[in-house]
Each structure stands twice: as structure tokens, then as C-alpha cells.
# Entry
Amino acid sequence: METKYIGEHLLPGQFGHFFAVLSFIASLVATIAYFNVTRAKETTLQDSWKKLARIAFVIEIASVFAVFGILYYVLYNHFFEYKYVWRNSSRSLEVKYLLSSFWADQEGSFLLWSIWHCVLGIILLFRAKKWEAPVMTVLSFAQLCLASMLLGIYILGYRVGSNPFLLLRQAEENINLPWVSRPDYLSMITDGNGLNPLLQNYWMVIHPPVLFLGFASMIIPFAYALSGLWTRQYTEWTKPALPWALFAGMILGTGVMMGAAWAYESLTFGGYWAWDPVENGSLVPWLTMVAGIHTLLAFRHTGHALKSTFFFFFISFVLILYATFLTRSGVLGDTSVHSFTDLGMSGQLLVYMGVFTIPAFWLLIARRKEIPDIKREESSYSREFWLFVGALVLLIAAIQITFTTSIPVWNKLLDLSGLRKAFNIKQLAPPLEPVFHYNKIQIWVAIVLGLLTAMVQYLKYKDTPRKQLTAKLMWPTLISIAATALIGWLGNINFDTYGAGFLVAIYIMLFASVYAVVANFGYIFTGLKGKVKSAGASVAHVGFGLILLGVLISSSKKETISIDRMKMLDNGFFGKESKENPRENLMLPRNFPVQMGAYHVTYAGDSTAAGDPKTYYVVRYEKKDPANGAMLENFTLYPDAFINTKGQEGLTPNPSSRHYLTRDIFTYVTAVPRKDEANDTAQYSPHEVKQGDSIFFSNGYIIFTALQPQPKHRNYEPQPGDLAVGAQLEVHTKNNEEFKLQPVYFIRDNTYQFSIPDTLSPLALYVRFSKILPKENKIELEVKEAGTFDDYIVLKAFIFPFINVLWIGVLIMIAGFVMSMYQRIKGNKQTPVRGARPATALQEV
# Structure
């Protein structure tokens, strides 16, 4: 007899799964129909298939948006009978983070990707014209693959996709549990598992949509290139593809840098970039797409580098699919903190990658001899020659990043193939210092790219007179040398952590970055005669130079100011597995000012807000004039953290920063005391002392120096009639450190006696003024050394100098991309495609 479950909302899930299946069928029909449009020779047959294809694609669009709306509906209403809702949301989750929970897991992120394909497809329906059929064939097939990720049905015993509307009781891990047979099981589920604390941030609301738009847009240049090969129109496709390539490069680059900003503002990477595998997975396709844009420009002006353009456009989209496999297969579980866990779709992801990779590169190889090419050698003083060199440098950067990021994949392949046992191959290990591992190669890539960015615009296509080039570059070169020397001198750039050789590389990169900015800025006025509307490429290059400059200065001059000079944290404080350096973390006892760089920093307490699971820590910074003690500056930061979150141990912190024009102070909490450590069993021990006497404790001694009438204590509020006195104490430690304490003793209403202790939290030392002994001219002090104390935080703080140069560079580069897109779209309406003829008619190019 079938169990009737109480309180389930089944209709939304049934509709949602219906539309998921419908989107799969509609995309299959659209793919077949557009394929037949491309293959058909008769106009009437083409029109018939095109009508069917468009109808199917419109149904696909409607289905995808219906799935989106229904999934958001069940999330918003907290229908925890659905596994996706229970796993990624909770009743306490703020409404603004419901969208975050939508794409926090694999099914939702695939759906987001599919939504952007729909939006781009609508644009192509109206703009692609004669390229609609082949390009939409590719896009519809990609939609088919994405739709399959949401099916969650079994075909020949293999599960295809994962159904976002799967009921919690139907999940494989729950199906045999006793509660599944209870009709009222929903009464036992009062709340959901909740959203990963790292994702409960406004960046999670805006970063993934932009990044996935970048992922989705990368298929358009790929589709145009594949269509050109497929239809043997080897050159015509380049004209409509260039604006799309610029758009894909701009959006993906924006998504990557928004991720960097998220890491800087909200994560604990210690900055904006940590060469995390997931970061790398997004960066590498952007590098190859930028390379493809430049080789396409070279082809459009000279006829060279068309084969290279095919390669770069193909490999860019393939690398998007490879990054998807890396982050969603679970293979990066041990090397990345924010990759997805494996949902059993690894094989399907590999098939997705294969069905695009194999046909594209097979066609490229099979028809390579048909692709138009110019046999004439490029001059080394031509723009196209150095554009190609720059593309190769970007490819080298992509290869190095991809190889290291893929170390877990290489290990899996060696195990599965049996090569490890056969040849006794050792396990490949990720680099111990990943930042330096990447930087020691990528700094030279950045140098070459900076120099090329500066000089290439001054070169002409085909050839450039030597004297003319020298004359044009003389002033930008001299200005850049002077500016580099000035920055190096005033900025005192002396980063020698990795030796003198790396410091030399830093100075060369400094020149290359400055050179890129100065030379491209100059080219706008000398080469383009101030025509800003035509300066999209130069503007983008200025932005790129500023990005390099901002990265260099902020990284090489990054200063850790949370130095533990008191050695309060030993090497085992963070645990054996932690990579945190205890000497770069500072313990801040509550209400106890501690010097940090030029500041005195005080942890003033913490607070929580209703409905907000975070704990906010109040950290006050004060900077005083050492000569007269006058206050120069003061501000408060509020780093926050999730404590003892579900499924995690310890702390999940979010940083807080103080922004200046020339620097940022970047602060986050690295440790707080555990509640179970607060059980203090230590007892006070009494000591009778007179002025000048000492009391010894395990870490030093205390001297009673004087009595203070009308004492001031943070916990004492005097009232009329109080008789109060404070004991002035000096504390000297074994490390020659000195502190002052003042416990207070007072009598109120001539009857009640009170004692307010004072605390030296770094030493877990508590002192209480308990009695006055007038006959002996002494006082009684009670001293306690607690084994632990629970009123502190451990803080890490950096100064990032001139970090705004990086963010300004990002904005300028994006503006340059937009200007270039506008220029190309406008130009496409006015001029024919160069090289749009058979190979035998390329002489004019």
C-alpha cells in the first residue's frame, strides 16, 4: 500500500520536472532542425526547418525560465520536502540570499548557465542573419547538454543528470531510512541545512550571474568558428564573430575580477588572488580568448593567423568545459576550498566536453589545408608578428596554470591507466607554496605582455620603418624609465623574500607596467590624434597596464602588521594541519590595547543581530602622535565570522577593510576561543602587601606601587557617597614586558564592600583588591592565573598599498572592451570582410 505523506507540495516539483524534460526535448528538436537548415539546399526546405527550429527554441526558452521560476518558488516558500531546498536554504536565510541558494549547488548553476544561453540565443535569432542556422545548431546542442544535467532519469541503468525537484525522501542516501515510511515525516524537518556561510555574502548574489554569462558567451565565438569550418566559409565568419569575442572577453574578465574582489572583500585568501584552482579555471579561458581576439585582428588586417584564431576560439570554450569538469567532479576536493562535491555526473561532464572538443578539432585538422593562408613571412617589425607572439605568450601562461591546477587529474589518470604501478611513478604533489610557484613563471609572462602592450600599437601592419618606430617610442620609453625609477625610489620596493633574482624581475615588471600605461596613453594623442572613440584598444591596454601595476605594488609592498611580538601564540595554536603562521597573527584580549604597526588596536566586544547567524567583532584602531600623544586617527572595523557552522569545524570568517586613496587596511579574525575551553577551575590566592612589595606568578611578578583615590576603571561607575580606592600595580614578565593594572575596592552606603578585579588577558592573569588592612599599613590582593581565558580574538591584518590602482585598471579595461565592441559593431555595418574570398584571391590582403 502506497504511503500518503502529509504536508508535501508535490505539484510545483511535478511541473518543474516536466518543464526540465520539455526543455531537453525542445533543445533536441531545435538542434536537429537547425542542423537540417544548414544542410538543406532548397530554400523552401530551409524555411520549413527554420520555422520548426525557431518554435522549438522558443519553447526551450519558455521551459528554462519556467524551471527557474518554479525552483525559486519552492526555495522562497521553504518547501523542505525537496532535497535541493533542504540542502541549500533555511528559514533564517535572508531573502537577498535566496538567489544565492538558487545557484549555490550544481543543478542551479547549470540552470543559470542555460538561462544565459537562452538570452544570447534570443539576440542571435535577430542578429545572426545567414549565420543563424549553423551557430544556433551549436548553441542548441549546448542547451541540450545543459538540459540533460537537470533530467535526473535513468537510461540503461545510468543516471543522466540530477533532478533539482527530487524529494528528500526519494534521495538514494535516504530511501531506506525509517523516517521515510512515516506519513508525517515533514513534521520532523523544521528547518533546512542552510547555505554555506562562505556564500552568504552580497558578492554571491552578483558574481555568479556575471561569471556564468561569461561562460555562456564563450560558446558564441566557438560556434562562429565551428560554423565557418562546417560550411567551408573560412573567412566570412570572422566579421560577426569579433564583437562577440570582445563581449565574451569583457564579461568573463569582469566575472574573474569580481571573483577577485569577492575574495578581497569577503573571503580569507589574504587578498584578491591566491591561485586557487577554481580561480585558475576561470582565468585560463580568458587568457586564450584574449589571444584569439588578437590573432583575429591580425587576420582581419593581413590575412595571417586564421588557423591560430580557430585554435584559440576552440580551446577557449573547451577550457570552459574543462574548468566545469574540474570544479564539479569533486576531483579538486583536496586542493580547492570552493569546488563542488561530486554528484555522480563526472562521466556526463566528460562526455559534454568530448562532444564539443572532438568534432571541432577533427574538423580543424581535416580541413587545415583548405583554410586560407598567406605564405609570405611576416616582418619582425609588423604588428601582426608581435600580436602572434603575444598570443603564444598567453598560451604559455595558460599551459603552465592548467598543468599545475590539473595535478589531481594527472594523478587520477595515472591510477586509472595502471601507469603508476607499471612504471613505479610517484604521486604528483601540488606545490607547497602555490603563490610563488605560479608567480615565478607568470611574472615573466606579465613582463613580456606589458612590453608588447606598450609597443605593438606603434607598429603598422605588414611593416614599420625602423626610424619612425624609434622616434615614436623614444618619449614614452624615457618617461617610463623616469617614472619607474621614481616609483621604485619613493615606494622603497625591496621585496626580497624570494631572493635578489625575483626582486630584479619585480623591477622589470614595474617598468613594463608603467610602459604599457604611458605608451598607450601617448598613442591616443599621437597615433590616433586624440580620437577617443577609436581608442578602445588603447584604453583597454591602459587598463591592463594599471592592473599589472596594481598587482605588482600591492603584492610586493603588502605588509603584515599583525606581528605577534609578545609571542602569545605558539606553533601549535592553529593545529598541525593549518598553514597559518602564528607569528603573523595577533591575540587581542577584550578591552586591552595592543600595538599593531602604527596603530593601537582594541577588541571592544562582539555583537549579533536577530536573524543574522554571523558574529560581528568590534575592533578599534587608534593612531597617536608619538611626540605629544595627540590623536591622529581613529576608526572601527567589524570583521565577522560564522562560528561552529553546520558541517564545518571552527570559524568561517569574513574580513573588514579600511579604504584609503593610497592603501587599504585589511583585517580578519583567524581564531576565537571555543566555548568548552572556558571552564575555569583556577582559584584566587590571597597576598598581603605593602607599598613596594612584589607578588610572583608563573610568568613574572607584580609590584604594588601606590593607592589611587578616585580611581577610574572601565567597570566601575562611581556614585555619590562611594569611598573608592584603586591599587596601582606594575606587572613585569620574563620577556621584559611591562603592564599596568588597577583593581578597585570601594564601600557604598557605608555598608556594602565591593571589589572590581582587573585583568591582564594576554597572561590570563586576574587581580582582585579585596581588603584594606590599616593597622598593618597593608592591603590584600587576590591573584589568579587561569588556565585559559575566553575573552579574546586572534586577528590578522595587512596593509595593501595602492590597491585602488588595480580596481581602477579593471574598470578602465572593461571600458576599453566596450568601446572596441561598439567600434566593431559599427564598422561591421559599413565595411566588407577582409579576406572573405577563396585562398587564391587573397593577394589584396
About this structure: The chain has 20 helices and 23 strands. Residues 833-845 have pLDDT under 50 and may be disordered.
